Amino acid sequence: MRREKIIALALLVTALSAISGLALITAFIFKEGLPIMLTVGLEKFILSGDWYPTEGAFGIFPMIVGSLAVTAGAMVIGVLFGLGCAVLLTQFAPPRLVSIIKPSIELLAGIPSVVYGFLGVVILVPLIRENLGGPGLSVLAASIVLGIMVLPTVTSISVDALQAVPRSYREGSIALGATVWQTTHRVVLRAARSGIVAAVILGMGRAVGETMAVIMVAGNTLDVPGSILDPVRTLTSNIALEMGYAAGDHRKALFATGVVLFVIIMILNTIALAVSRRRARQAVVR
Amino acid sequence: MTKWLLTAAALILGLLVLSFGLGGRKQGALAVVGSTSIQPFAEMIAQEYQKSHPGRYVDVQGGGSTAGLQAVANGIAEVGMCSRALKPDETGYAAVTIARDGLAIVVHPSNPVAGLSRTQIRKMFAGDITARNWSQVGGDDRPIRIITREEGSGTREAFQKLVMGKARISRKALTQESNGAVKELVRHDPGAVGYMSLGLAHGLKVLAVDGVEPLRAAVVSGQYPLVRPFLFVTRGEPSDRAKAFMAYVLSAPAQELLETEGLVRAQ
Q1: Same domain, B95 and B106
Q2: What pTM value is reported for the model?
């Protein structure tokens, strides 16, 4: 019994230290970043496009737009292919095929982001530059690279959601004479909707936060992009690019960029949590 | 299960011991940190130095000029590498010029333009309406794609001072975080123009500036307008090993090595 208690205590300590890590990070980012946001003025910081750190002008609007544009593009690609994969794996594919495709997609999660970035620079960027025009380093390139990077997240969580749909729904629909495809999109996808939304939002969180691969393929200009062939700078790349040198107010402004990023990711996670709670409640009602 | 855990524990322990072991060997290394423009040259010199001075180790790291100065100020590194002149507010450092470097304006090898004036370069990088297409400066009809370095880079600050003056580099400039990344872009994009250390610009077309080809003679004589110092920076009284390394860098064999690599000697 005593041993049991000691183990429980030890586990509690590890759990608490993980949480205190999160608390420390949060406190530190806000402590370093908030003051400069307030001195510059929240509105100016978020809505101004002038980022001249050496002259004391800190406006991150183009980077917010950049982050959102790249993430939106990544989600179009990630959701299209991820959800497609998930539907194939749960509804159509024979078990043998599933046992090949599923681990391969999960393997994508294990590839380091520099490798994605490098492939992007070497293969994707020249392809875009030569066939579509523009510098190649672009919203499009970043979206494609990120879209592939979020595939495992979107696919595996969607697969879980689709598998959680009770067998009876499917069987009932087929018994009524519906085809497999009709069953899939009229019954199964609808029943799994909240799980799929959670998958999309978690994938979005991953896309917003990715840094290395984006720095390599996005071009990092300070301008608001006019098309998907224009280069952009995201919030994360701004921090990573300038962190090494920044001192004084510039450094604080980078922390403030982190605060904005933090808030965006918190909002996404809260939505994901709320959606999956709703899903759990629905399951209970069922 | 227990067996598995034991194996894992043994593995982790082994790795830890190994990493401490490796760390231990580096204990006596002199840390030289800073500009990515100087880094490759410093690494070469460090290698020669370690060969001719057995038992001495020099650990060269990049990070950027400003980061190097900060590392020296914080005591993380003994020697900082800085690829620009010190600014008036950067006081308390002792700087030694180890070499001088031409700042090359680089374009794709297929670009027919042979040279530009500093005013033209400034207009290009400022995004001026009169310099957005190569045809406006005597080249093909192709949009000019400007490539700059990130804020805080010594190369960028040298470029800002030598070419831009008070003008700002355009927001539309692509920003890359190393000489290597700039080179990679320029080498593959026929419309690109960038700037980098002359010593690193192999494989690219280097433009004449104000009518002067960036040849060594022109850099030495001061005719080529874009020249910046490469500095080794210390703070306070340098240790013996730092002094020894700095003395070696300024010695004849090291200076010759730098010269064969495309830099211009300090004196």
Answers
A1: no
A2: 0.80
A242 CB neighbours in chain B (<8 A) are 150-152
Backbone angles phi, psi at B173, to 5 degrees: -65, 135
Give contacts of B189 with chain A, Cβ < 8 Å: 129, 135-136
List the CATH number of the domain containing B189: 3.40.190.10
Both B219 and B243 in one domain: the answer is no
Distance separating alpha carbons of residues A220 and A139, to the nearest angstrom: 10
Closest CA to A168 of A146, A191, A196, A199: A191
Selected residues 139-178 of chain B with any CB under 8 Å from a CB in chain A: 145, 150-153, 168, 171-177
Nearest by CB to B63, from A62, A215, A244: name it: A244
Give the span between the Cα atoms of B234 and B32, in whole angstroms: 10
Give the mutation candidate from A245, A250, A254 for the B interface (greatest B CB count, under 10 A).
Answer: A245
Is B179 part of the contact surface with chain A (CB cutoff 8 Å)? Answer: no
Whether B118 and B217 map to the same domain: the answer is yes
Domain count, chain B: 2
Which amino acid belongs to residue A73?
A: G
Buried b (16+ CB within 10 A) or exposed e, A182-201: ebbeebbbebbebbbbbbbb
Band (pLDDT 50/70/90 cuts) for residue B24 is very low
Please tell me the CATH code under which domain A63-285 is placed.
Answer: 1.10.3720.10
Task: Considering only the beta carbons, identify the residue of B67, B173, B177 that sits closest to A241.
Answer: B177
Predicted complex ipTM: 0.78
State the pLDDT at residue B55.
86
8 Å CB contact of A49 and B184:
no
| Distance in angstroms (rounded) separating the CA atoms of residues A230 and A81 | 24
